[in-house]
Automatic annotation (TrEMBL):
InterPro entries: FAD/NAD-bd_sf, Oleate_hydratase. One of its GO terms (molecular function) is oleate hydratase activity. Keywords: Lyase. The lineage of its organism: Bacteria, Pseudomonadati, Bacteroidota, Sphingobacteriia, Sphingobacteriales. Residues 23-32 have a biased composition (Basic and acidic residues). One of its GO terms (biological process) is fatty acid metabolic process. It comes from Sphingobacterium multivorum. Residues 16-54 are annotated as: Disordered. Gene3D superfamilies: FAD/NAD(P)-binding domain. This is Oleate hydratase.
Amino acid sequence: MKEITSKFDKVLNASAEYGNVNHEPDSSKEQQRNTPKKSMPFSDQIGNYQRNKGIPPKSYKDSKIYIVGSGIAGMSAAYYFIRDGHVPAENITFLEQLHVEGGSLDGAGNATDGYVIRGGREMDMTYENLWDMFQDIPALEMPAPYSVLDEYRLINDNDSNYSKARLIHKLGEIKDFSKFGLGKMDQLAIIRLLLKNKEDLDDLTIEDYFSESFLSSNFWTFWRTMFAFENWHSLLELKLYMHRFLHAIDGLNDLSSLVFPKYNQYTPL
């Protein structure tokens, strides 16, 4: 192996041997070539190839699993223990201090009077982990063999989400929300933010970086109301959100980039 002189050399000189089986591809270490000992495709070429049913190296039918918290993360862990680890569901115990499961997705109410919930979840077509689980979970209302994913598709394909009054001002008048209202300098500032190193943004707020014209634009109103940002929040957090959800800009102004369940988010999630 040659001397490492840069971050790129470190990636290119990573070990060509991953081991016998690699269930978690690491794009920072892999080389673009196949070997007899590299069983997984490159991390950006996984797709449905990962939908196989793996064989555990040993039996876990007698294992006892204790999960702290019954929020989305804890429930997801239990799901994968059952599906991929073949752990019997009765062997999994949640340790939860609240009287209701769901974590921050807890909810109370009913379909007639409505629900109260601490926070909503905005979902789109790119939530690969969520849809991976939902395609194996039986549907709430549809008969077998339909899944929760099928119910999502049924409602959103036939009654797609969009807002007719995304912005309201002057005591109830619908404001024109067809444009983002970003000037050239504001657009350039977004591009520069996406290119900045994370380490350079540790102590900066959003209002430290962006101009007043950006903060008063329709775009910023769309973004901060969708993702619960305030002007004094972390610029780094905003950057990370933009990297993750930049594809949603196409439907940001009318919320058409999102998908929703039939009734509420608490029941299906």
